[in-house]
Amino acid sequence: MRAALCVDAYTADGARKWNDANVLALSLRLTSDVVLEEILDAWLAGRPSTDGADVANVAHLDDI
Q: Domain extents for the chain?
């Protein structure tokens, strides 16, 4: 399991892309309805990167 605390759409997209995160954590206090929609859109559309360095980073996390 790889979780990511996301406060904006860029972070949500990056968490899926670079870390292949599969759990989304949100701050109820910091997240407006508009930002929440942007985060969810980015999270659901995001896909893991196929770049070798990113794949190696995720594999390293699995090894840990």
A: 3-63
Q: What is the CATH number of domain 3-63?
A: 3.40.1400.10
**Are 38 and 8 within 8 A, CB to CB?**
yes
For the segment 21-51, what is each residue's pLDDT rounded down to a tens digit? Answer: 999 999 999 899 999 999 999 999 999 999 9
Contact yes or no for 30/24 (Cβ under 8 A): no
CB neighbour list of residue 15: distance below 8 Å, 6 or more residues apart: 4, 6, 21, 24, 43, 46
Q: Which of 64, 61, 51 is nearest to 22 (CA)?
A: 61
